[in-house]
Structure to design on (171 residues):
């Protein structure tokens, strides 16, 4: 599990935040599933995981309600784990105030938030508030259009513009 390396390096060793821009439908559920697997195998450190996207929350509910569409691997997992999209430490953020509180919380955490290309939504605020601290990691896990914020981060740009202001990329 490559993601486990990022979790351990960022959240355990450096005591930072792992911020993952992810599309609300599909990618977020894949991430939750993989984190659930790590939790089931007692490999996931006891670090809170926040899904900060109302659409992601609703898409996950729809996914949970339609287990008939799950592949054989997930069906097999469900023999020992009733819900492959839930685990201890997973929290779905609803309100804007709860979302903002994550940025002032200095503790290690994983934040999965939309948009997947990091060009809009709550994830932009998480990146803006954490990009200039080298203990944090911004993990791009899907396609990003080259001119999007995610695309610029993937290219390794050392300065990025977010909401009209320039930020030094240290994360």
């Amino acid at each position: 599990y490559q993601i486990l390396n990022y979790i351990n390096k960022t959240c355990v060793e450096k005591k930072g935040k792992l911020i993952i821009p992810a599309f609300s439908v599909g990618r977020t559920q894949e991430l939750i599933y993989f984190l659930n697997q790590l939790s089931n195998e007692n490999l996931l450190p006891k670090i809170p995981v926040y899904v900060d996207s109302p659409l992601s929350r609703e898409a996950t509910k729809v996914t949970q309600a339609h287990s008939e569409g799950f592949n054989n691997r997930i069906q097999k997992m469900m023999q020992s784990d009733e819900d492959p999209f839930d685990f201890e430490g997973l929290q779905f953020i609803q309100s804007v105030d709860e979302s903002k509180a994550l940025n002032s919380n200095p503790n290690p955490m994983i934040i999965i938030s939309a948009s997947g290309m990091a060009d809009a939504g709550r994830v932009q605020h998480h990146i803006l508030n954490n990009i200039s601290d080298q203990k944090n990691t911004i993990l791009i896990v899907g396609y990003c259009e080259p001119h999007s914020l995610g695309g610029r981060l993937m290219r390794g740009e050392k300065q990025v513009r977010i909401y009209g202001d320039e930020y030094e990329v240290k994360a």
In short: The mean pLDDT is 91. The helical segments are 2-13, 27-40, 54-65, 72-77, 96-104, 122-130, 149-154. The longest strand covers residues 17-21. The longest helix spans residues 27-40.
